[in-house]
What we know:
- The protein is α+β, with helices and mostly antiparallel strands.
- It is built from one helix and eight strands; from the N terminus they run H-E-E-E-E-E-E-E-E.
- The chain has one helix spanning 12-44, and strands at residues 46-56, 61-74, 77-85, 90-101, 104-111, 116-125, 128-135, 138-146.
- It has an eight-stranded antiparallel β-barrel with strand order 1-2-3-4-5-6-7-8.
- Strand 4 and strand 5 (104-111) form a beta hairpin.
- It starts with 11 loop residues before the first helix and ends with a strand.
Amino acid sequence: MSARAATLPFDPAAVRYAVLAGAGSLLAVFLTIAPVNAAIAAELAGTWSGSGTVTLANGAREKARCRASYIAAGGRTYAMSATCATASAKVSQTAILSQNTKNRFGGTFYNPEFGVTGRIRIIVSGKRQTVYLSGSAGHATFSMQRR
C-alpha cells in the first residue's frame, strides 16, 4: 500500500465567504447578547437600602441599617457608595465591583474613617440583593431592596 496525500482544490473566494459568514455569525451573537448584558447591568445600578448584622473582630455583634448607591463605571464594573449605621456608629464606605456572573458581583471596599479595607460580594435576585463584607475589622451580611 502506498500512502498518497490527498490534495483539495483551494478556492480563495470560498475562504473569504467562510470568514465573512463566521464574522457575521459572531456579530449576530454579540448583538443578541449585548442587550441582555445591558439588562443585567441595570439590575445593580441604582439605590438600595436594608438591614443586617455586623460582627466585629472582637466578636461583638450589632444590627445595622444601610443605604447604598451603585453606578455603572464602564464595562462590567460598578462604583458603590454606602452609609451604614449601628447603635454605636455611622460609617461610610466605597467599593469597586465587577460583575462575575449574571447576578453575582465582587470587589473591594474601603472605609476611610477607620482605614478598613476588605472584600465585598453581592448576589442580586430581582429587586433584592444580599451583601457580604469581610475584612480585618470583622464581617457583615445585609439584605437590601431596590428603592
